[in-house]
Every structure is written in structure tokens, then in C-alpha cells.
User: What shape does this take?
Amino acid sequence: MQLQRLRRTVERALLTPFYRRRLAQAGLKSSEDILSLDDLRRLPLTTKSDLREAYPDGLLAVDKSDVVRLHTSSGTTGTPTVIYHTRHDLDSWTELTARCILATGAGRADVFQNMMTYGLFTGGLGLHYGAERAGLLVIPSGAGNTGRQLRLMKDFRTTVLHATPSYMLHIHARLPEEGFRLDELNLKKAYLGGEPYSENTRRKIETLYGIRVYNSYGLSEMNGPGVAFECIHQDGMHIWEDAYHVVLIAPDTGRACADDHEGELVMTTLDREATPVLRYRTGDITTLLPGGCPCGRTHRRIARITGRTDDMLILNGVNVYPSQIEQLLMRVPGVATNYALTIEKVGALDRLTVKTEVDRQLFTGDLSALDRLKTHIAEAIKSGALIRPVVELHEPGALPVFEMKAKRVTDLRPKE
Ligand code: AMP
Ligand code: ZN
Assistant: This one.
């Protein structure tokens, strides 16, 4: 099935300007040249910057009139990456997310409160339709507004939550202030993902709430959530191999590495019409787990993501590149070139502090001008990178200077 679907995917890819050129360079003119899954190795790797270069339509393989939705990725410099979906694509994604939910033992009797952001970001809409298809009652609450979230949980007897791990911890810390008690709620499970977290954090959240937490992995380039998910055994995430071909590579050489070695996850879409993506470098480091799962599913499992191959930061579930912050910062008049970023945990949430040097003539004693500049910077970063930083202004020369490669990011979040 994978081979058949791979051929179809290559056929579709050849309809896009981007891959027609790429595949021709690799000596591949037709899907007939793919004789076995091993031939995948002949195909070039695709990176996030390739997708960005192809923006907006370089990877579109169908007529625009057949497209019914698009999503863009969070956290890229300047140009986003866009993924188009046909009706078939949405249907296939919905099947995958329904499958994830059923694999955790949830079903028609459950009430699903979806606390991920709805919109261009795939977190919200991604599991929404799968949960409906699996027959759960869906509350599309979206992210934020903790008081309202708790009220919904209580009044509608929510049993399953979908959120980032940091938001789950945040809600727990706010329970008393918001005037709620855990024993008034009916929570049983949570699907947590969108950002890395450790096994310890999983156990901590399970104990705090008295629920089961299932790890949920996905990325917008591969649709979004629903790429890999834990089943009731909570031992690695089944990666849906009828929809994605999976291989691990050594990030430095790009060569395939043994399954039980840590490597960068590289994925090929097998069932997407509108935007076929071949050998996509996810930047996520994991291993493929050996052996079968007691649940009986034959889709292989990946281990918890242990890191990234690039400098992408994930702050409260939002992807951010330091270079992106730099670009946004440098566009603000009055900002000088030296800056530093600090990330810390404040309560359960991530906080980004942007320290930046500004032109000396701004330090005139007029504090309101400095305040306006701080707000301006915070807003510029919020609108471009979706995260609102705390801004500190410094006089020229006040921040450390680096002669070699600048170390601009200090991540003080605890590593468990
Ligand atoms: P996005 O494309 O905005 O959905 O972001 C996708 C990225 O979020 C992935 O490439 C991962 O780096 C990260 N991510 C998503 N889910 C998880 C998870 N369960 N564990 C660790 N990282 C995750
Ligand atoms: Zn299983």
C-alpha cells in the first residue's frame, strides 16, 4: 500500500513547479521510476526553507478550485509555509485524528474540550473534526481564558482535554483563584502536545489531575496534530504509516540511520492530494521503537521527541526562531543591533524577555518615550511571531559583545 501511495504521491509532486524541477535534477521524470520503497532514497530531502521558497503555490498539485482549506505554519522568518487541502485531504486527516482518539479508549460517551488555538494554526481544527467523527461531544473552546475553560469543564462534565502541557500546568495552578475544585470536575484524559515535554512532566500532570495523559505529535507540514499518538499503553506514539512514510536520518550527513538510533524524523505524505511533500526534514529528533505494541496496532511507534536539529524555540506551543525575532526587532526605528533573548518559566508558562540596545539619544529622561518604544517593540514581535515578550531597553554597549558566534539565547527553563 505504501509503495502504491508513494507512486501516486510522486505523480502528484511532478505536477508542482517545485518538485518537477527538484525531481528532474535527481534524474526522476516519472513515478514509474519508483520500483520499491528503497527508491525513496533517490528523492531529495525537502526543508522548511524549500517550502517557504515555494510560497504560495509552488507546491500546489491540484487545481485551485479543488482546494477547500489552507493552513500556514507558526514560527517562520518572514514568509510562512502553506499547506493546501482538498476535500479528500481533510477527510483523510479527520480519519487519522479520529483514529488517535479511539486509540486512547475515548468514544461517544466522552466530552472533548479542545483548548488549542483555532485558526491558521492547525492545533485546534486538527483534532476537532476527528473528535466529532469518533462521536465525542466537542466543545471548541479554543485557547486561553482559564476561568471560562474551567466553567465549561464543570458545567458540561468534560472528560477529555486537548492542550499544550504548559497550559495544563497553568490551569492547575489557577484552580483555587478561579474558584474551582478538582473534585467538581469529571476529567479522565488529556491529549498533550505541540511542544516538547518529558516523561516526568507527563507523570506530574497525571498525578496533579488524577487523569491519563497521552502524548500527541504533529506538525503543520504533515497536516498538523494526528501524525503520531499514544494508545492506551502510553508507550511511544503510533505513527500512521498508511498516511506517512517515515525514516530517520543522521542530521549531519542526511543518511538513513538505524531505526533504534536517535535521528531526525523525515516524512513523506502518502495520502495528500493538494500539497504532496517528499522526504520532509521535520527537525525533530526521535527513535523508532522496536517490537510490536500490546494493543495490536502494526503502525510503528516513535519515542518522545528529545530535541530539535535547529534553533527553533517552542514557547507555550508557538514555534519561534531567534532570527525571526531579530528581523522583527531590527525593523523598529531606534533599535540598535545588539540584543539578547532570555526564556524562563514563570509559573507554568514560558516567558520571553527581549533585551535590546537602543540609540543613545533616546535616553533623554523622557520615560514616556521609552515606554512607547517598549510597547512598539512588544507589539511588533507579537504581530510577527505570535508571542508577546517582556522588553528591556539598554544603552549602547550595555549588553555583552561576542567576538565569535553570538550566543543570543539563554534558555533558563528547567530541564528535567
Ligand atoms: P507546528 O507546525 O506549529 O504545528 O509545530 C510543529 C512542531 O511542534 C513539531 O515539529 C515539533 O517540534 C513540535 N511538537 C509538536 N508536538 C510535539 C510533541 N508531542 N512533543 C514534542 N514536540 C512537539
Ligand atoms: Zn499501541
Summary: Residues 107 and 136 are 6 Å apart (CA to CA). The pocket of adenosine monophosphate (ligand 1) is lined by residues 73-74, 122, 193-196, 215-220, 224, 282, 284, 305, 308, 314, 319 (CB under 6 Å). The longest strand covers residues 335-346. The mean pLDDT is 94.
